Amino acid sequence: MGMTRGWMLPALLAAVVSATAAEPEEKRTPLPLGERVPDFTLPDGAGRPRQLRDLAEGKLAVLLFTGGSAPGENLSDAAIKLEPLGSVLVMIVTAARRFPALYDGGGAVTRRFTTRPPTAFLIDGDGILRAFTDASSPDAVVSLVEQWTKGRRAFLSACIRCHEDESYPRLKALHGIGNRLTKEQILERMFPIPLGQEHISIRSHVFRRGEVDALLRYVAGL
Ligand code: HEC
User: Which of 45, 68, 179, 210 falls 20 to 30 Å from 165 in CA-CA distance?
Assistant: First the structure.
């Protein structure tokens, strides 16, 4: 048993993590995961000033910074695909003049969020940054939301009794863990035990590999 675990674990870690962490995402944004993002006001397509907090309060929202280039594909596709997950607000911030987006001509707001656009941020109803990705296609936006939602479901079913956020007497706080550990390190500290090719046991809960991926994304944003 001990030996099996010894040689299988590195391969397992590589397999699970390679799908998520193609490049160190940490470097893309100066904003910490698990913290409130700075509020801002930018003009919309009609020139009306719009405030992030007003638009996004109480909603799960994706905030997509495209930088100087206009979003290549129609992001209303993303909004449509996201419908089954409940209402997710998709907001685009761009320096390219374009219709339904928020216009950040000088790029000052963009620079507060990302060093290398495009970057998509997932923000919860309290304005807390939960996850981000460098991809900007509708599919990537959908995947960001789906993964996080799936990870949240797994966390609520298997982990929350020991890792509740505020009130519960915690055994171990996970808040901000994604800022100090890579996804690989987070997984190691969950003491995963491989069960064959497809399944992984963590704290006696059995997960499929895809679920572990999603769980890591969720935990990183706590
Ligand atoms: C029975 C209680 C319990 C459950 C259930 C549990 N954990 Fe933990 N977890 C702990 C304790 C206690 C620690 C700290 C001691 C240790 O490292 O073993 C910990 C540590 C961790 C750490 C390392 C934190 C750090 O800062 O180093 C991570 C990550 C983690 N748990 C994630 C999870 C995830 C994800 C789940 C759900 C799949 C989970 N835990 C389920 C009790 C639990």
Answer: 210
CA of 11 to the centre of ligand 1 (A): 22
Give the chain's mean pLDDT.
83
Ligand 1 in reach of 200 Cβ (< 6 A)? no
**What fold characterizes domain 2-220?**
Glutaredoxin (3.40.30)
Residue with the smallest CA separation from ligand 1 atom 5 is: 159
Mapping DSSP onto H, E and C, the string for the chain reads CHHHHHHHHHHHHHHHHHHHCCCCHHHHCCCCCCCECCCCEEECCCCCEEEHHHHHCCCEEEEEEEECCCCCCCCHHHHHHHHHHCCEEEEEEECCCCCCCEECCCCHHHHHHCCCCCEEEEECCCCEEEEEECCCCHHHHHHHHHHHHHHHHHHHHHCHHHHCCCCCCCCCCCCCHHHHCCHHHHHHHCCCEEECCCEEEECCEEEEHHHHHHHHHHHHCC
pLDDT of residue 84: 64
What's the whole-number mean pLDDT along residues 207-219?
95
Residue 59 in contact with ligand 1 by CB distance below 6 A: no
- Residue-level pLDDT at 166: 55
Q: What are the residue boundaries of the structural domains of the chain, listed by start? A: 2-220
